[in-house]
Structure formats: structure tokens, C-alpha cells
């Protein structure tokens, strides 16, 4: 067993690893992350996860419900994981949670995509618990410093390609676009494709192919994205960013700034407004359905998956399913009473596959949409989605400290 596998085993048991080993791990993680672009390309199948916030035992429950990261003893799990940030703060085990995710990233780099959240920042972790936790567990701030240096290298987003617009394993009812399952795989509810999404206008006529395949009456640049690409980001959009390519140009290797495009991506929230609005968080912006629909159309996206906001049901789709919030910390702060969810996108098997262009760009349209009015934007129905909803890990699986965390879950 390698040192890394030993560290994984130790962290899975919720025991911190020694400081020199953390230093080595963070160094290796940084070398890996520095090679990643600001927007990582991920190929379906993928399980998308939202905020964790140091709730270690619930992270273990997430892996049980959503599928574990491949162990060398297992054959092939087929799933990769994309975690949308806010790994730390508030919970009692931010350290063990983050280090385990980091170990898994180093051990299985293609199976784990870690995206930066607004809590992966020096300033925020100093206020909301992670700094104190490191100090308490190691007696110095060294480990906190190593981790913060890793935060600076985390990607800002991911693009999921090759997702299917049918469920896998298939639903036993035709035309189901969304299934919601409980933590044991039992069916809670399902939603058909028809009736949810408005039909495209007559110009798309009899074209019944999957959205983005070219047979849906859409732009031709999306072959290889049968269900349209999915953008993953922690917070949301920015008024300074109108294309995914502009995200790629940000100099991300720094502490999260107080304003600007990088800040907005980590802090913004969708809201029932027109256009842009000021955020009550004091960082990032609020953005409405019109903003999302124009952005998705321009960038050939069918869906934006983001985290950042507590949702009592674990997930929440908004704006004709053009954006979804995924929240993966059940009973947040050990007191909110919410359930959590992960979002599974399955692999397309229609034969279109995913191809890469020589410039590394993958199956995207030119983005040349001029004079576009929000009303003219026909939403893509997007990939079939299976949400797995789960509750907090059983009480007896956690060594629950007596002290309650500070009750401020606004950030
Ligand atoms: Mn957040």
C-alpha cells in the first residue's frame, strides 16, 4: 500500500494525517492543479456535488449514495465526481474532508474535479472555522497555510460534455427527463420531458434530434454535445463574462478578489429579477432568467449547475431548468433540517461521442449570436438528470463534538 493509499485510509476513518504528509500532499496537488485550465473539461458520466462544509460523515454518506471514487480493488466504477466548492468551514471536520478530497484528486486525477468555492479563501476561512480547526488540530497555522496555497490553484469551473438526454439506467416510463431517487435508490418522483419545456417554434419543425446535435434546429457547432454542454461553477455568472472562453482568460492563481469576474463566479446567485442586481452578500451579483438564457444560448450550454445556496430539498431548478442549484450538506450546520442531493448525468451512447478540436476546445459553437433578445432564445431541454437525495449520516456514525457551530449560514 502506497503512502497515499494509507493516507486515504486514515482520512476515511476521519483521522488527520501528520503535518509533513499534508505538506507533501498539498505540494503534489498544486503541481497537478497548476496544469488544469480555469475551466476543466469533464466527460459524462459524472456526479455533480455541491457544498460540503466540513461535514465529513455526510461526505462519506455522499460517496455511499452517489458512488465511491474508484478504489484500486474495484474494477471500474465509471463515475467521475465534480465537486462545486465550499469544502471547508462551519462543519467540525473541514480538515479531514478537504484533505481526503485532495488525496483522491491526487490519486485519481481524472475522476475528481474540484472547483473553487467562495469559502476556499484565506479571508473567509479565517472567519468561518477552518483556520481555527487547523490551529486546534496541529497547534500551528502551517497546515491552514498549505491548504490555502492549494485553494489558489483550484479551477473556477468545469464543462461537462457527452451527457445523455436519456436516463441511464433507463426509466421504466417513456420520456422521463428527471428522476429523483432517495439514498437507497428508491424512486421519489419523476418528470417527463413534455410539459416542462416549451416546444421550440415551428422553424425547428420536425427536427426531433437531441438538443445540440444539429437535428434540433440549433447551431451546428455542438456535435459531440448531444444534450448540450453543462457549465459547473460554484456561484454563478458575472456581468464581466459573456463567454466561457473569457473565464479561461482569468488569472486565477491568487486569493479570491473582493470584486471582478473571478469573485462573481464564486459569489453570485440566480434570482427572480430581470438582468443584474446587487447581491445582499456584498460580493458577486444577482442575475435573472434572461441573463442565464442568453449566456447558455451564446455558449451552447443546456444547463448551468451551481452550488452556494442552501436548498431544503437538496436541489432546485430555476428558469425553465436552465440552471440548477445542488446542495450536498444535509442538515447543514447540524441544525437546518434540509436534505442534500447530488446530480448524476449519464453518458450518451448515441454514437455521437465527444471529439476534441486541435485547439483543445471541445465541440462548441462559434458563439456568434448577435442582436439576440431573451424571448428569442429557445431553451435546450438539456441532459436527463437523476438527483439522488440523501439525509445526514446516522448519528452514531459521527463523533459529534458538543460545541455548536456559529449560526450564520448566509454566506
Ligand atoms: Mn458558497
UniProtKB/TrEMBL annotation:
Residues 115-120 form the Serine/threonine specific protein phosphatases domain. Residues 187-222 are annotated as: Disordered. Keywords: Hydrolase, Manganese, Metal-binding. Gene3D superfamilies: 3.60.21.10. InterPro entries: Calcineurin-like_PHP, Metallo-depent_PP-like, PPA2-like, Ser/Thr-sp_prot-phosphatase. It is an enzyme of class 3 (hydrolase). Its EC number is 3.1.3.16. Belongs to the PPP phosphatase family. This is Serine/threonine-protein phosphatase. It comes from Purpureocillium lilacinum (Paecilomyces lilacinus).
Amino acid at each position: 500500500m502506497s503512502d497515499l493509499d494509507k493516507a486515504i485510509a486514515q482520512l476515511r476513518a476521519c483521522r488527520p494525517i501528520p503535518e509533513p504528509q499534508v505538506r507533501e500532499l498539498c505540494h503534489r496537488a498544486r503541481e497537478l492543479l497548476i496544469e488544469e485550465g480555469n475551466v476543466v473539461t469533464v466527460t459524462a458520466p459524472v456526479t455533480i456535488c455541491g457544498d460540503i462544509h466540513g461535514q465529513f460523515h455526510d461526505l462519506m454518506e455522499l460517496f455511499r449514495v452517489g458512488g465511491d471514487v474508484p478504489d484500486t480493488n474495484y474494477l471500474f466504477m465509471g463515475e467521475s465526481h465534480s465537486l462545486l466548492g465550499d469544502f471547508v468551514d462551519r462543519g467540525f471536520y473541514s480538515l479531514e474532508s478537504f484533505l481526503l478530497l485532495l488525496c483522491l484528486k491526487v490519486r485519481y486525477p481524472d475522476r475528481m474535479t474540484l472547483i473553487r468555492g467562495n469559502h476556499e479563501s484565506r479571508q473567509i476561512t479565517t472567519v468561518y472555522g477552518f483556520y481555527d480547526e487547523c490551529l486546534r488540530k496541529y497547534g500551528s497555522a502551517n497546515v491552514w497555510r498549505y491548504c490555502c496555497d492549494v485553494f489558489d490553484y483550484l479551477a473556477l469551473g468545469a464543462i461537462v460534455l457527452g451527457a445523455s438526454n436519456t436516463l441511464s439506467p433507463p426509466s421504466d416510463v417513456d420520456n422521463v427527463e428527471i428522476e429523483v431517487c432517495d439514498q437507497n435508490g428508491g424512486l421519489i418522483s419523476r418528470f417527463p420531458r413534455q410539459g416542462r419545456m416549451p416546444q421550440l417554434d415551428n422553424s425547428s419543425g420536425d427536427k426531433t434530434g437531441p438538443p445540440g446535435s444539429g437535428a434540433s434546429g440549433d447551431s451546428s457547432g455542438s456535435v459531440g454535445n448531444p444534450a448540450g454542454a453543462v457549465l459547473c461553477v460554484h456561484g454563478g455568472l458575472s456581468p464581466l463574462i459573456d463567454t466561457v472562453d473569457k473565464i479561461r482568460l482569468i488569472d486565477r492563481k491568487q486569493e479570491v478578489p473582493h470584486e471582478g469576474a473571478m469573485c462573481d463566479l464564486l459569489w453570485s446567485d440566480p434570482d427572480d429579477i430581470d438582468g443584474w442586481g446587487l447581491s445582499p452578500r456584498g460580493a458577486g451579483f444577482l442575475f435573472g432568467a434572461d441573463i442565464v438564457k442568453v449566456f447558455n444560448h451564446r455558449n451552447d450550454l443546456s444547463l448551468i449547475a451551481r452550488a452556494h445556496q442552501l436548498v431544503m430539498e437538496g436541489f432546485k431548478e430555476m428558469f425553465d431548468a436552465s440552471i440548477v442549484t445542488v446542495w450536498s450538506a444535509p442538515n447543514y450546520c447540524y441544525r437546518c433540517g434540509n436534505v442534500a442531493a447530488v446530480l448524476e448525468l449519464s453518458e450518451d451512447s448515441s454514437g455521437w461521442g465527444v471529439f476534441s478540436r486541435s485547439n483543445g476546445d471541445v465541440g462548441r459553437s462559434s458563439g456568434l449570436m448577435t442582436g439576440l433578445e431573451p424571448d428569442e432564445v429557445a431553451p435546450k431541454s438539456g441532459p436527463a438528470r437523476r438527483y439522488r437525495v440523501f439525509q445526514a449520516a446516522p448519528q452514531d456514525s459521527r463523533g459529534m463534538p458538543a460545541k455548536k457551530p456559529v449560526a450564520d449560514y448566509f454566506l
